[in-house]
Amino acid sequence: MHATVRRYEGVDQERTDELTKKVDETLMPRLGKLAGFSGYYLIESGNGVVSSIGVFETATQAQESDRVAASWLREQNLETVFPNPPQVTGGEVIAHKTSGRGEI
């Protein structure tokens, strides 16, 4: 299992609701169709920081999700919401635990 984490700083806090709606309606369905998709989480940390976590079976699949997300940002004209490029970290998940109930 592999994860990719994207951390965006300087996010326009006035547009968080718009961003959340677009992610829910258009990005998550697109990511969900990718091979190896296991999960996606969007986190609002406050102070203009938003992070996402995508979980996939392989590193190649996780890297594909990075390309999909970048393309999605351009298509949705969200460059002004995300004025800075994300810090992207990815790698093999070496430990994990879930509740087994399907949702966090």
Question: How does this model look, in words?
Answer:
With 104 residues, the protein is an alpha+beta fold. 33% of the residues lie in helices and 30% in strands. It has one domain: Alpha-Beta Plaits. The protein contains two helices and four strands, in the order βαββαβ. The protein has a four-stranded antiparallel sheet with strand order 2-3-1-4, covered by helices on one side. α1 packs across α2. The longest helix has 17 residues. The chain is globular. It starts with a strand and ends in a 12-residue tail after the last strand.
Main sheet specs:
4 strands, antiparallel
N-to-C SSE series?
EHEEHE
- Backbone shape: globular
Domains, number = 1
CATH architecture: 2-Layer Sandwich
Q: Walk across the major sheet and give the strand order.
A: 2-3-1-4
In round numbers, the mean pLDDT is 90
**What radius of gyration results from the CA coordinates?**
14 Å
Task: Give the DSSP E fraction (strand runs of 2 or more residues).
Answer: 25-35%
Oligomer classification:
single chain
- Which class best fits the helix and strand makeup? alpha+beta
Enumerate the spans where pLDDT stays under 50 for 5 or more consecutive residues. Answer: none
What is the CA-CA span between the terminal residues? 18 Å
Reading off the top of the CATH hierarchy, the class is best stated as Alpha Beta
User: Could you estimate the helical fraction of the residues in percent?
Assistant: 25-40%
Counting DSSP E segments of at least 2 residues, the number of strands comes to 4
Could you name the CATH topology?
Answer: Alpha-Beta Plaits
Helix count equals: 2
